[in-house]
């Protein structure tokens, strides 16, 4: 049997391809960044053609670097930045506007109108989400409203919508599909009936004919078509697995049982808890999504999102110039015993769960004349951990489940300082795996299930190995005091951009 899977990991700032063997080991990898566009404050865009070209480049480079032959490849799996919205012409494949990124807050007024119109309960009950510009639905409406003739063309079937999984699958295979986990992040999908919701589409003026067919997370969607530059040798390889990046990471972490949870420290932070076949609704500002559907069985997850995590470390480096590398942030943070009372709330594009304030903006509080860059760096790292702690507290309350251990991954999880502080403020152990490439591994595993490389979701448990476990070292009263002051700082950032 063909023994290798290619995982395409299309993220917010880079496009990667990783080839895994049947033991879950990465044998080859290629990665390319692409440009971030910020047309206005709070707006974030990508060029869809940049997304595609860097992803194809990574795919071709990883395959050539591996030394494998096409017959060695059992299939391709895809995982992607979620909610990011692309509309393109069906006949030409040309996007009609830049991709509106999940972080973008330009549609806050559309979300506000949904709330004012009394749609919150219906949206929560139907989609598991809350009205917020984070999700795809209001982004689709904005493009249809702003591009002349777009809605009429969509009604005629001339335009297609897709999140990034759909965009990549369409360009690789010619098929217009989305997997059920990505569909559940659009705010247009009924997670109970597992179908698009016509009422929400009608309310937002979104023609349903532009929506992709919804498929499971592990099945053959199509095969790589001929003539794609740079990957001609992969023609005919099945594209047979897909999931949104956070659901893929949940699977890649081996969280296949209800009550197990993970947090990914990437551009943002995303905390997910497996809730099994039930889809509970949160009273604490969290959302419910489909985790995956495999062999007809649907698994759900409760989720909380931190919009800016790793991006706040990038901000220290690229905008403030306080550090030259991400690792330097760790080094500086450990040169001071504490932040000196400084808190950094990195609400650059608003606050996600449990606050859901699209008008919040970043703040630095508690500065004194003695505050130095080491205190700021430490406060940024601690601020990420505080936000994750808020999510877990709300999650435990909503589900009635006390978390035994939090599994972690993502680029920023390599920070020993932040992982120890996370264990301290949570007062729970943190488990970091040997490989933090769990998102790509989850996508590879889904494709491998479809291709017959693995037989059952439980098989992934044996692929995960713990690299280090961080136990709480801080006194519980001290942790509670730090969190209390953190909440005071969050209060200063809430509603900042709202007009009086």
Description of the molecule:
The structure is a single chain. The chain has 500 residues and is an alpha+beta fold. It folds into two domains: 4-246, 2-Layer Sandwich (Nucleotidyltransferase, domain 5); 253-433 and 465-500, ATPase, nucleotide binding domain (Nucleotidyltransferase, domain 5). Helix content is 34%, strand content 22%. The chain contains 15 helices and 23 strands. The protein has helices spanning 48-66, 108-116, 120-127, 136-146, 150-155, 164-173, 180-183, 198-204, 245-252, 310-318, 326-333, 373-399, 416-426, 438-451, 476-493; strands at 4-10, 14-21, 26-33, 45-46, 73-80, 86-89, 99-100, 159-162, 177-179, 189-190, 195-196, 213-215, 222-223, 238-244, 261-265, 269-276, 287-294, 297-306, 343-345, 363-365, 406-409, 430-433, 466-470. Helix 13 (416-426) links the parallel strand 21 and strand 22. The longest helix has 27 residues, at 373-399. 54% of the residues are buried.
CATH topology of the largest domain: Nucleotidyltransferase, domain 5
- Main sheet, how many strands, which sense, barrel? 7 strands, mixed
Structural class: alpha+beta
What would CATH call the homologous superfamily of the largest domain? Answer: ATPase, nucleotide binding domain
């Amino acid at each position: 049997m063909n023994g290798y899977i290619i995982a395409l990991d299309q993220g917010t700032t880079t496009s990667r391809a990783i080839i895994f063997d049947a033991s879950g080991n990465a044998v080859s990898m290629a990665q390319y960044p692409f440009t971030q566009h910020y047309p206005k404050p709070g707006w974030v865009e990508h060029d869809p053609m940049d997304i595609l070209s860097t992803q194809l480049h990574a795919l071709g480079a990883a395959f050539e670097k591996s030394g494998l032959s096409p017959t060695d490849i059992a299939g391709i799996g895809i995982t992607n930045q979620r909610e990011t919205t692309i509309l393109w012409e069906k006949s030409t494949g040309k996007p009609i506007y830049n991709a509106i990124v999940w972080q973008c807050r330009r549609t806050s007024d559309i979300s506000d109108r949904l709330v004012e119109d009394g749609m919150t309960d219906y949206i929560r009950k139907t989609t598991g989400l809350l009205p917020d510009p984070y999700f795809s639905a209001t982004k689709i409406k904005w493009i249809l409203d702003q591009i002349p003739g777009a809605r009429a063309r969509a009604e005629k079937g001339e335009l297609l919508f897709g999140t990034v999984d759909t965009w990549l699958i369409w360009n690789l295979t010619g098929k217009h599909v989305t997997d059920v986990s990505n569909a559940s992040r659009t705010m247009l999908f009924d997670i109970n009936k597992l179908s698009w919701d016509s009422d929400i589409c009608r309310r937002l003026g979104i023609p349903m004919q532009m929506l992709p067919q919804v498929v499971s997370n592990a099945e053959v969607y199509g095969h790589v078509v001929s003539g794609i530059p740079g990957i001609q040798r992969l023609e005919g390889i099945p594209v047979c697995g897909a999931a949104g990046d956070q659901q893929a990471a949940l699977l890649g972490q081996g969280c296949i049982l209800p009550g197990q949870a993970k947090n990914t420290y990437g551009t943002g932070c995303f905390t997910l808890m497996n809730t099994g076949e039930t889809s509970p609704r949160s009273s604490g500002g969290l959302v419910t999504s489909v985790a995956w559907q495999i062999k007809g069985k649907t698994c759900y997850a409760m989720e909380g999102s931190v919009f800016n995590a790793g991006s706040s470390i990038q901000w220290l480096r690229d905008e403030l110039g306080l550090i030259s590398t991400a690792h330097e942030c760790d080094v500086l943070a450990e040169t001071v015993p504490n932040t000196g009372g400084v808190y950094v709330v990195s609400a650059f594009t608003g606050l996600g769960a449990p606050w859901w304030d699209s008008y919040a903006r970043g703040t630095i509080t508690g500065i004194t004349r003695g505050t130095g860059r080491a205190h700021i760096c430490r406060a940024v790292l601690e601020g990420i951990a505080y936000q994750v702690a808020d999510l877990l507290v709300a999650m435990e309350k909503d589900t009635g489940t006390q978390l035994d251990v939090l599994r972690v991954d993502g680029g920023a999880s390599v920070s020993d300082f932040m992982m120890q502080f996370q264990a301290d403020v949570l007062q729970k152990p943190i488990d970091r795996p040997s490989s933090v490439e769990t998102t790509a591994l989850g996508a590879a595993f889904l494709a491998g299930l479809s291709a017959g490389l693995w037989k059952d979701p439980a098989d992934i448990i044996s692929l995960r190995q713990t690299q280090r476990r961080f136990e709480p070292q801080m006194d519980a009263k001290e942790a509670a005091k730090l969190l209390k002051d953190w909440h005071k700082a969050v209060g200063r950032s809430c509603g900042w951009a709202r007009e009086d």
